[in-house]
Amino acid sequence: MPQAVGTAQHALLALADLLLPAPCPGCGADGERWCAACRDRWRRPALLDLPGLPPVIALAPYGGSAREALLAYKERGRRELARPLAEHVAGGLRAHDVPPAALVPAPSRPAAARARGGDHVLRLARAVVRGAARSEPGVPCVARALALGRRAVDAVGLDAAARAENLARHLRLRPRGLPPPGCAVVLLDDVLTTGATARAATRLLAAAGRPVDAIVVLTVADPRAPRSLVRVGTDRPPVSPGRCP
User: Fold this and answer.
1) Range in 55-69, 107-121, 143-157, 205-219 the model is least confident about
2) Model pLDDT, residue 139
3) 8 A C-beta contact, residue 82 and residue 76
């Protein structure tokens, strides 16, 4: 029943979007599906240095219009945002010289995915691949290598230790979804808060012989993050994982 309700809600939202002008998800401007000013906040990809992790490419801080746009896509049925968000993901990868790679989406809790009408990060990863296929057919690819168990709890409100414990108990590998051997691997997620998901996912993938070459997050929620962001055009060396075979 919850899945049917969630699907019906998203269908109604999609119908309303066809009949009424959709407001900008960032600032609420009438008739603007995503206004230029709000979209521009996503055009400055940056590298974030986190101990024990590969390079993290962050598209925007988790605040203001960027936060509102993400919540609109994730929680409020604005599925049409998957395509422009995917373009920003692809732009971030290009800006940091990441070649075509297998995108591993960070998984949602099953209950949350049902309530939202689907896994929003998986949908985003597929949109990135569809966009890339128009310019370079065959790559990148989506590798559904990770899953969260049914008993995983919502991470909102958990501190770093509790998030790590939750993931240690419930995040697991999907062997059939592992990237091809020798393929570059990029982990994709929506929000980086404590880094617990990134660390748990990279450990699992490395243990399976698929080390993560780079991480892409739509937003960074850690208020300390902007101080350690290294903007495009600095002297930092580019990310250079190998290509998919």
Assistant:
1) 143-157
2) 54
3) no
CB 243 within 8 A of CB 184: yes
> Can you give the pLDDT at residue 48?
85
1 pLDDT more than 90: no
Amino acid letter, 245: P
Rg over CA atoms, the chain: 17
CA dist 157 and 161 (Å) reads 12
**Do 236 and 230 touch, CB atoms closer than 8 A?**
yes
Q: Could you tell me how many residues make up the chain?
A: 245
Per-residue pLDDT, 232: 40
Distance separating alpha carbons of residues 217 and 196, to the nearest angstrom: 13
Binning the chain into helix, strand and coil, the percentages to the nearest 5 are: 45, 15, 40
pTM equals 0.81
Q: How far apart are CA 21 and CA 200, in angstroms?
A: 41
**Three-state SS at 187:** strand
Report how far apart, in Å, the C-alpha atoms of 16 and of each of 29, 83, 84, 181, 232 are.
Answer: 17, 19, 20, 45, 39
Query: 3-class DSSP state for residue 229?
Result: strand
Two structure tokens written together for 168 = 């240690």
Task: Please tell me which residue, 21 or 35, carries the higher pLDDT value.
Answer: 35
Between strands 46-48 and 102-105, the pairing is unpaired
